[in-house]
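Students often ask what a holo structure prediction actually looks like on paper. The answer is less mysterious than it sounds. You provide the chain, you provide the ligand, and the output is a string of discrete structure tokens encoding the 3D arrangement of the protein together with S-adenosylmethionine.
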Amino acid sequence: MTHEDNFRHQGLRRNLVLLLESKGIRDARVLAAIGKIPRHIFFETALVSHAYQDKAFPIGEGQTISQPYTVARQTELLDIKPGHKILEIGTGSGYQCSVLMELKATVYTIEYQPVLFYRTKKILPEILGYHPNFFLGDGSKGIPHFAPFDRILVTAGAPAIPQPLIDQLAPNGILVIPAGDNEKQEMIRIMKHSDGKITEERFGNFSFVPLKGAFGWT
Ligand code: SAM
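The corresponding structure tokens follow.
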């Protein structure tokens, strides 16, 4: 792991931002966050050349750091405002969490896998200076104790939309979740309107590692 952020890294990051723009990402704040966060810090030193390609990459324990396009698209769909209280399910490497922190949200992030949880809980504050609220456990049930949330983001593929997550959305809240089978999921955005009415929109196919736990695959 390298902590240096040099001109080469910064140049590669600028190219990544241009690529994401060319793929249709329009939210300037999301692009600025991706342009700022040193994604190579989440990679082993020998693998730094992969960090600014638009692809998912293994982070150990059978899990992945999401593709930058996927991170940008999910974040854009969430329409985050400064001060929003956000629940992220699937902390993983902490990269997506860093993007949420850059948008000045208050982030509650939960990870199922203990090795990843302890690694990211150490790295994010120490190296990048981000201080989200970290939790170890089954995020498919949400975190009822800290609900409601203005935004909920699921970064693993669910078999269906967990009812507890809808229940834990605040009025005018948004849930973004990939749902489908093990191979392929559809990106779904759920909105809870001020009168409690729920609406659903779909945004194309993606491929995530499976959401585990009570409302996941096992
Ligand atoms: N947001 C992550 C990042 O930026 O690196 C993406 C990580 S990966 C695509 C999905 C993560 O969800 C994995 O770390 C996995 O262990 C975690 N996960 C799976 N099921 C979970 C659950 N029920 N609760 C919390 N985390 C879960």
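The domain at 7-206 is CATH 3.40.50.150 (Rossmann fold).
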